[in-house]
Amino acid sequence: MDWWLELVLRVVAVTVAFLVLPLLVGQTEHKVMAHMQARLGPMYAGGFHGWAQLIADGVKFMQKEDITPRAADGPVFKLAPGVALIPYLLALLVIPLGPGDLVGQPLDIGLFFVLAIVGIGVVAVLMAGWASANKYSLLGGLRGAAQLMGYELPFVLAAASVAMAAGTLSLPRIVEAWEPWWLLWQLPAMVIFFVAGVAEIRRPPFDMPIADTELVFGYMTEYTGLRFAFFLLAEYVGIVVISALTATLFLGGWHGPMAESLGWLWMLLKTGAVSFVVIWFRVAWPRMREDQLQRLCWLVMVPIALAQLVLTAAVRVAMAQ
Fold first, then answer.
1. Phi–psi pair at 22, nearest 5 degrees
2. Helix, strand, or coil (residue 258)
3. What is the reported pLDDT for 110?
4. How far apart are CA 294 and CA 300, in angstroms?
5. What separation in angstroms does the CA of 243 have from each of 21, 145, 190, 272?
6. In this structure, are residues 193 and 159 in contact, taking their beta carbons and an 8 Å threshold?
7. Closest Cα partner for 276 from 256, 233, 246?
8. Residue 241 — φ and ψ, nearest 5°?
């Protein structure tokens, strides 16, 4: 196969995943929240089990008027939803779906690339908050920046623990080096990585930048129509990326029975299971206050992440001798 044709096929496959998987997560969230909170609304659209709810939401967003506030910084305001989406698309390029060539673009520094690119999402929050010419939006943007500055540290430290254990920054090689006993000695790192990842994408209970009870809807207050929908889509893509990274780094990725032929299925199932936990978090946990959020990060998660890093280094040295 010509290299350019292979490149096109890989890009198309990643783009399809980028468009389909977040919608499946969104539809799942509608149904899971409907059952857990006894919500009847999402169960009616389209008839059986409300199968058309997501389609109805899409039509609703397309029909809404696209409004840009008169005092807003127009170009920045309009560009922010795209900036929120693109980093997650690039992250999906290097996350392996299965063994062999089932990855958009294998990189020797894939983990470093993903950690760097995911952090760009907060730039969109700042852009939206500043450009909206709205004090509530600005406060939401500043909260988002403070949240990222805090939770980026345990997020990276937990990922570094796995990279140190595997001896590589390549995501496919980390999966290849994974052993079942990692579920025990890397468990603290997994919990920290997952919680910090949920905070990175500003999902409940870490949704202080939105905080609808006090900031209307935070940095998204002035957005309508498809631009608002793009922010929601970025949130669901973020769930997919964080869940896929958790599955790749800590749950063995494609490892499972008949991994050579069904590895892609195990990876999708593990990603879906972690995504379900993210949705459950939204339903079961109340929003944290800003002081609680920062205290959890700096006084609990960072020390545990550092201790896990020391443990990993000690185990690596012991195994090398």
1. -60, -35
2. coil
3. 87
4. 10
5. 11, 22, 11, 7
6. yes
7. 246
8. -65, -50
User: Does residue 247 have a pLDDT over 90?
Assistant: yes
Asked if 292 and 150 touch (Cβ cutoff 8 Å), the reply is no
Q: Are 21 and 240 in contact (CB under 8 A)?
A: yes
**Look-up: residue for tokens 């893509």?**
237
Provide the token pair at 316.
């690596």
Q: What is the DSSP letter of 94?
A: T
Task: Identify the burial level of 38 via C-beta atoms within 10 angstroms of its C-beta, where 0-12 means exposed, 13-18 middle and 19 or more buried.
Answer: exposed
More confidently predicted of 194 and 284: 194
CB burial readout 254-264, b (16+ within 10 A) else e: bbeeebeeebe
Indicate the angle between helix axes 135-166 and 302-320, nearest 10 degrees: 10
- Backbone angles phi and psi of 251, in degrees to 5: -110, 10
Q: How many domains does the chain have?
A: 1
Q: What does the DSSP assignment read for 34-49?
A: HHHTT--GGGTTTSGG
Length of the chain equals: 321
Q: Is the predicted pLDDT of residue 239 greater than 80, yes or no?
A: yes
Task: Check residues 101 and 304 and name the one with the higher pLDDT.
Answer: 304
pTM of the model: 0.91
Range of the domain at 117: 3-320
The whole-angstrom separation of Cα 235 and Cα 6 is 30
